[in-house]
Amino acid sequence: MKAVVLLSGGLDSYTAAAIAKSDGFALNALTIQYGQRHAFEIQSARLVARALGVERHLELSIDLRGIGGSALTSDMEVPRDRDLDAAIIPPTYVPARNTIFLSLALGWAEVLGARDIVIGVHARDYSGYPDCRPEFIAAFERLAALATRAGVEGAAFRVHTPLVTFSKADIIRRGGDLGLDYGLTTSCYDPSGEGRPCGHCDSCLLRAKGFREAGVVDPLLLR
Amino acid sequence: MKAVVLLSGGLDSYTAAAIAKSDGFALNALTIQYGQRHAFEIQSARLVARALGVERHLELSIDLRGIGGSALTSDMEVPRDRDLDAAIIPPTYVPARNTIFLSLALGWAEVLGARDIVIGVHARDYSGYPDCRPEFIAAFERLAALATRAGVEGAAFRVHTPLVTFSKADIIRRGGDLGLDYGLTTSCYDPSGEGRPCGHCDSCLLRAKGFREAGVVDPLLLR
């Protein structure tokens, strides 16, 4: 059975995709170049797609810098060494990003005849983004049934979030069980030209915390 | 009050935008170049945006030919002289198109501080597209509240569909009342290089039927 999996080049989407593969899905990976500051992640997405043995890897471009409003898609600064326990939605939030990404995944899924979409969101050890929550995903599934020809014909689209209850450490442990090479991935929001992680953005901090709690050395640090 | 209005270059979105303007909204027009066969409509969208006096006209590009699956975004043929009363979803249906477009409008609305989105869908004298129905729009509004920072903070996004109960003739009559120049618009799905309408696609047929029923001459025919 085919699934469309959103693949960013980070470790969450890699793990979510690997879980879907182990569940028997044939993966069709979708990567979006959206004008993100860390466009370096696209290169990681290609490596990850190859490692996963996907059926097809589609890259689409939509320049969300035209919309802006986020530290990832404008010149706004990426926060450094932020308190991750602060209950705020940080400036790296990209307005409507997962809605846009899931919409594109839905369109492709319909064309492929797939009814399953996989996304690596999780609502623990994450950045407080509203569009990573289970209630958002459930609302998208309801929308998908109404939005499509397949839905009118009776199909239900399912958005799989295999990591939704996982901490970052849980994800890393699970990836270890699946034999994933996280050295292929990148997480940093504000990498240098050669993709070197800054070590201070939320995404670097969450990654470091996850590896620490999982008791695993991040292979990126061994480079 | 600001609104984001999806503007295609066709007469429906022009009329919907003009109604929103007459209701007091300051218009921010969003036009999507999505790899459509009738990319000529982008030129019309620019003329329409100028005629409407929009605050800003944002054009975004996302090449849905990578996804395909529609006569508008692939080499599949556009049906000619089809029976418009046949209750099918025709091959010009673009998978998830309005979901993608509304998602982009939502992101831009959030950045602008707008809570209102305007789209010219109607569920009479239309092409049977699932993502033009009121139940789809209502589901998108529910999603928008969950998808965004603004929603988490208590804002409700409203998707206005001022034409939803209108026939094509109703739209044209209303546009006449508002003094709109439909000579600026284009509707054809399969125009020649200079934008000349084919006269046989669903969109040309619906336009001709609408003008006929409204008792108005299509200004495009006077060229």
Explain this structure to me?
The structure is a homodimer of 223-residue chains. With 223 residues, the first copy, chain A, is of the alpha/beta class. Chain A has one domain (2-222): HUPs (Rossmann fold, 3-Layer(aba) Sandwich), CATH 3.40.50. The first copy, chain A, is built from 7 helices and 5 strands, in the order βαβαβαβααβαα. The first copy, chain A, has helices at 11-22, 41-52, 97-112, 134-147, 149-152, 168-177, 202-214, and strands spanning 2-6, 26-33, 56-61, 116-118, 158-160. Chain A has a 5-stranded parallel β-sheet with strand order 3-2-1-4-5, with helices on both faces. In chain A, α1 links the parallel β1 (2-6) and β2 (26-33). The model of chain A has no long low-confidence stretch (mean pLDDT 95).
